[in-house]
Amino acid sequence: MIQKKVCVLGSFGVGKTSLVRRYVQSIFSDTYLTTVGVKVDKKTLSVGTQEVTLVLWDVAGEDDVNAIRMTYVRGAGGYFLVADGTRAETLEIAKSIQSRVAAEVGPVPFLLLLNKADLQESWDLSREPVEALESSGWTVLRTSAKSGENVEEAFQELAKRMVS
Amino acid sequence: MSSLSLSARPTSDLPDAQVDDARIRRLADLLLAVARTVDPEVAAEVPSSFEGDPRLEALRTVLLEQDRAAFARLRQKVDDPQEFAEAVSAVLASAFALAASRDERLATILAPTMERATQASVATNPKTMVGILYPLMGPAISKSLAETLDSTLQGLNQAFKHSFSWQGLKWRLEAYRSGSSFADVVLKHTIVFRVEHVFLIHRKTGLLLEHVAAPQAASQDPHMVSGMLSAIQDFVRDSFSNSEGGRGAGIDSLRLGDLTLWCEEGPSAFLAAVIRGNPPESLHGQLRETLGHLHEDLRGPLEQFEGDSSILGDLSTRLGTCLQQQEQPKERRLSRWLWILPLAVLIALVSWLVLRAIEENRVDTYVQLLRDEPGIVVTGAERYDGKWRVSGLRDPLATEPGDLLAKANLAPNRVVGNWEPYQALSPAIVLKRMEATLNPPPDVSLVIYGNTIRARGSAPQHWVEKARAFIAALPAGSPRIDLTELQDVQDPTFVALRHAIQAHIIPFDSGNPRPPQEQEAVLDKIAEEVAQLIKVARGLGFSVRVTIIGHADSTGKDTSNLSLSAARAEVVRSMLRARGVAPDLLSVRSAGALEPLKPDATEAESAINRSVTLTVSTAD
Q1: How far is B185 from chain A (nearest CA, A)?
Q2: Among B32, B232, B468, B483, which is most exposed with the fewest C-beta within 10 angstroms?
């Protein structure tokens, strides 16, 4: 069995915890996020014939006061960058986080998840920066923690990239 | 610049073939000369055909000028220590790295030199080596000291805690018998623990490398637990470490209720053990040793681990050695008897003493009750042949001693009485004796006042007479019996009958023992009255006797008169008997001439003295 440490990163309030809550096995309370700054969950899925266990480190969101602890990112086999489509500034924060994480863990697979796809009409995120990121090699998925859109696909995609 | 030509001399005079041959030979000589120059072995074996030829030297100069310059520079570097050192220093690190990567020979070769260098350094200035080792050994020594101190304190705490208890005394005896220290014995009995989980966690990724659990140990998902443990370790290191410029140590120990978490950190992985109970400090050593062996054997795989734990092989057996436990030693069943038997004996002894004390108390009560009873004098009470023997004097009319046993809660078979009879003169006993002897009528009450017994009420004459006779027979020192308040009451019918019977005088003829014929009717009357008297007396509760007294006049001899009077009385009794009067109620007495009815009677009156009279008395 393969295990991979996967970090879920992003700005404060982008829906990281909601995104994983319905799709992972969890035993710890969300209060760990506000105390220790991270909560560990688990999701097991199959990539081909290979069973992969993703140990998800849901890292407390970054804001103007609190930066992400890079200690929690160390050793990650892959990560999700989560941004809120209704808040354009969260994409910039995601880009900032990506640069710091890449410096810490190197070129490991990652996905950019534009969350809250169920509120598409309220998005203030223009297409250009997203397309620019895609053209630079980023993989971008539009997800919704509320409807479940693309959530399973996101886990599956990242797992496939990590074990390939 | 000089030029070189293969034509050593002119060849115009020779044919072409010869010219070519000569040229080839010269070329061969030339090449041979070059080979001699390059290879000293060739120079030694093949003699030069160009010795002394100036052109050869010129050729050498042309061909080898650059090599000679390079060689000169190289020689200069080798011959000059400073330059040689500079040259070696430039490649030394790479050379060491290359040699170390190929095999272990470099380490083997360098080891003795390093040892000597270390010894020399320590001999010259030990502080240098101390300064080098302190950052490495300091934390380890501190940790070891702390564990040793904790272990000692653990032993002392337990020893103090149990020093003065009953169990502590037992353990002190065990320490004396086994030769161990008291603290060790206390620890052996009090440290009860079980390692329930052991996690081996990759430090860099926080991923679980292996997890083993004791049977029936409850646990959450080990992957998530290991991840969270790793996160908390990182959190503690980042938040509370006081080391500058580096990461400090993480959590060594956590305690939550009955559970303890111990962590041992290694370079690539750390061990986390979840322990229930009170673990000994020596368990730290076991965890550290296991972790050390894992790092020794799996250094490469641990450093290269990226999520595939199959490269580490089976670690569960190794971690399984950490699943230690120590249970509370069970009490041996034999020991139960060792204290139950003496306890039973002690209980039996105490019970016997208590029961005996209780029985003695009851016997004292019994003796006191006996002494309070009139007519009983206790002279001794002692144990004899497993029973109590009470001795003394007892009036037969006193209370039966056995009747008092129940009041003293004594079983009849526990006491043997040894009583000698005597007559008690206490008022109560005299009263009893009086009642038993005289059978007082219902109207008579006998009451004790001090040393006096007073009879009150009314009683018939005959009872009063009996009472007086009883009083007269009492020995000296007896209580006084007062009958003055007793009223003498007679039954009128009885009195009348007695009067009638005693009024009869049966005359006899002189010298004749039989009454005259006309007295037959009188005798009939007497017999009827006696029968009625007996009946009345029985109704009153007593019996009567009728005495027939024979009389004679004074004429004739006295002996003859006595016989005659006796004969007259006997005849009358016989005649009354013939009329139905019970003979046992009749008695006769001959008065002769000694009890004349009319002593001064004349000859004519003397007939009254020849008679039979009757007297009635109560038989009691």
Answers
A1: 42
A2: B468
pLDDT means over runs of 10, chain B (620 residues): 43 64 82 79 74 72 84 87 88 88 85 88 80 68 68 66 73 82 72 86 91 81 89 82 55 82 88 87 86 87 86 87 76 68 92 92 92 91 87 91 89 90 90 88 88 87 84 89 81 87 90 90 93 86 87 82 90 93 90 82 78 82
Distance from CA of B243 to the nearest CA of A (A): 16
Residue B94 burial (C-beta neighbours within 10 Å; 0-12, 13-18, 19+) = exposed
pLDDT for position A100 = 92
Q: At what angle do helices B54-79 and B16-38 cross, to 10 degrees?
A: 20
Q: Which residues in chain A touch residue B205, judged by CB atoms under 8 angstroms apart? A: 5, 74-77
* H helices present in B103-165, as ranges: 105-124, 126-161
**How does pLDDT run across A124-149, given as a tens digit for each residue?**
888 899 999 999 999 999 998 888 89
Choosing among B209, B219, B220, B221, which should be mutated to test the A contact, i.e. which has the most A CBs within 10 A? B221
Full-prediction pTM beyond 0.80?
no
Q: Give A-chain residues touching B309 at CB under 8 angstroms.
A: 1, 3
Determine the residue among B228, B233, B302 to mutate to test chain A binding: the one whose Cβ has the most chain A Cβ atoms within 10 Å. Answer: B228
CA–CA distance, A80 with A59 (Å, rounded to integer): 11
**Nearest alpha-carbon partner for B319 in B264, B254, B256:** B264
Of B213, B211, B187, the closest CA to residue B200 belongs to B211
Of B227, B238, B307, Cβ closest to residue A71: B238
CB contact under 8 A, A57 and B231: yes
Distance from CA of A161 to the nearest CA of B (A): 14
* Mean pLDDT within A54-72: 84
Helix axes A127-135, A89-105, angle to 10 degrees: 20
* Interface probe, candidates A1, A3, A44, A105, chain B, greatest B C-beta count within 10 A: A3
Taking CB atoms and an 8 Å cutoff, what residues of chain B touch A74? 204-205, 234
Nearest to A7 by CA among A75, A53, A99, A94: A75
- A93 touches A43 (CB < 8 A): no
Burial B39-68 (b: 16+ CB within 10 A, else e): eeeeeeeeeeebeeeeebeebeeeeeeeee
Kindly identify which residue of chain A lies nearest to residue B238, measuring between CA atoms: A71
How distant is the alpha carbon of residue A29 from its chain centre? 19
Q: CB-CB: which of A2, A36, A39 is closest to B307?
A: A2
User: If contacts are CB pairs under 8 Å, which of residues 198-237 in chain B contact chain A?
Assistant: 202, 204-208, 220-221, 223-225, 227-228, 231-232, 234-235, 237
CA-based R_g, chain B, Å: 75
Q: How far is CA B270 from CA B48, B147, B210, B296, B421, in A?
A: 76, 18, 11, 14, 104
8 A C-beta contact, residue A58 and residue A8: yes
Task: Report which of B176, B203, B201, B174 is spatially closest to residue B189, judged by C-alpha positions.
Answer: B174
| pLDDT tens for each residue of B374-427 | 899 999 988 888 889 999 999 999 999 989 898 888 888 888 999 999 989 989
Give contacts of A 6-45 with B, CB under 8 A: 25-28, 32, 36-42
Taking only the tens place, the pLDDT of each residue in B441-465 is 888 888 999 889 999 888 877 788 8
